[in-house]
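pasting for ref
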Amino acid sequence: MAYSINAKDYFNTKLYTGNGSANAITGVGFQPDFVWQKSRSAGEGHGLFDVLRGVTNRLQSHTSGAQSSQAGSLTAFGSDGFTVGGSPNNDAANGNGQTFVSWNWKANGQGSSNTNGTINSTYTSANTTSGFSIVSYTGNGSAGATVGHGLGQTPACFITKRLSGTSSWGMYHQSTGAGGFMESNSSNALQSNIAYFNNTAPTSSVFSIGTDSINNTSGSTYIAYCFAEKTGFSKFGKYLGNGDANGSFIYTGFKPAMLIIKCSDTDGEHYHIHDTKRQTYNVDNRYLLANTSDAESTSSSYAIDILSNGFKARTTNNSTNGTSGGSGRSYIYLAFAEAPLVGSNNVPCTAR
């Protein structure tokens, strides 16, 4: 079967080197609507920017802090990438001589209002082809409130963040369900509390929220990043560890370009990020942590193989492939494609 989605039209990883002054980063291949960037060579914080919140307005995946304006951060979205600024406060986005990675998604530009749900989203930038939307809304504090996501398909994963006050990132993942949430700025395991997503799974038009500050304090502003699964482009699943260096194989149906893995049943394990630009061959033991500001590292504890149709754990460590009491630990993952298993030209994707 051939797939029509060209993954690089909707997601791409771009590496760059900071110069300490205005720096136009090109080669993304499209105008990104969501940019997540991180210094590889220094312990600088993550920077998350999107077209709805506007340039210089930074969120950080490793903290619960509110949105802040950083003049030396991302200063423009361009037709083939983005621009990062000079001083002040540019070390985290463009420190002179530092190496950086950026992960870039295409949504649908500035978007429009969405009246689905009991809370009208101020703006929803939705790309139904790739299954990605950015949603801006204001909380009403009511249990069971719903917000339109614009995907026309049930999200497999969505992440919310309060902009106007301190609050954790709250992640819904279809593999863990709506009875709790993953706190994606920490190393905590699944938090069991039906209040966060009202114990209600999302639908093809809305997602549900409870009364907690992570997604629905009355009068507070929020951003949500929503993802639906698309064959040959994205996959949001789970697997069990086997405690063997010849570890579990996880089928995605494509070669992952970016992969985030988290142990969901054990506290103390991080969200670790792999991609095919920072490490171009297997075994891939080069990682960044979404929930810390640590510089890029290599460790056999995080080793995986990235394959033409999925990925395979290559460690006995609890971070990726552990067991406990004879049972495999549970892991969730978010994967975005470099190429589908079979492309539109009917040429199979090969492993690296």
